[in-house]
Prior knowledge:
α1 (24-32) runs antiparallel to α11 and α9 crosses α10 (235-246). The chain is built from 15 helices and 11 strands. By secondary structure, it is an alpha/beta fold. It folds into 2 domains: 2-246, Alpha-Beta Barrel (TIM Barrel), CATH 3.20.20.70; 255-326, CATH 1.10.1200.80. β9 (166-170), α8 and β10 (200-203) form a beta-alpha-beta unit. The longest helix is centred in the last third of the chain and has 19 residues, at 255-273.
Amino acid sequence: MKIGSIDIGKQPLFLAPMEDVTDPPFRRICKWFGADVLITEFISSEGLIRDATKSRKKLDFYEDERPIGIQVFGHNVDSMKKAAEVASESNPDFIDINFGCPVRKVVNKGGGAAVLKDLPLMEKMTREVVKVTSFPVTVKTRLGWDENNKNIEEAAFRLQNAGIAALTIHGRTRSQFYKGISDWTLIGKLALDPNITIPIIGNGDINSGPVAKAAIDEYRPAGLMIGRAAMGNPWIFKNIKQYLTTGIEPAPPTIDERVEICKTHLHMEIDWKGERQAILEMRKLYSGYFKGIKNFKPYRMKLVNLDLADDIDNLLTEIAFMYKTKC
């Protein structure tokens, strides 16, 4: 598969952009464990052109994260053009446009998945972004606004005509948010359509090797994008690749491996954004890091209530010791 001239191999695994999750430390860890392509947290076009500190910070990435795309969203064509120009100055490998975010504060302003209700605007916005950047442009979107308005097929052709290099489709409508089961039927239809010449990347509920293989075998996407299943679980990329190669599911990480990577992640976050913010954002990831560990809830409750990195380190060390002792 290629994005523009970038060859990213066969059946690449993408890390989906997730707000306040997929920052450089987390992306870097996922890269260590086999994520092939990374994308930044989504960035407001209005924030970028107004030089907002938080938006500008999201443009940063480590060189060893490549290939990496910078994702922008917005509702105004001129703002999106200017934002793409600003993002291009950071020298990513590609620019990704978010036409899929279902969050109300984004949709109510006409951005994200709201653009699915106006495909001529989607096409115009995309075409103008393609014109102003020398980098390949990709798009991430959904099946449509709701069950009665699944217009992804028309959207795909419009976006292809606008000049995008690849299209990621999340198998839910905006009205579903992240509920229910993703429907890959239209993803597969577009992936196999001979008139679609751009890569189609499938997204939605890819949480294990067997699920990934089933999606590839039935729907034939050019690649897979993994989102929530990677939260606190960077091993998922390595596990999926191993299963696709051998047909054998690897054993879950040991308690020592979980603790080591969790500590590494915490301290990378502290270096990146400071102790207080890092501790707050790590709290949503402990469930993932220790998923499947019996009777872990009391420790998780302790972890999310600690405010100092040293205390968290000490508790993680205790967790490793206690669970090895139990085994």
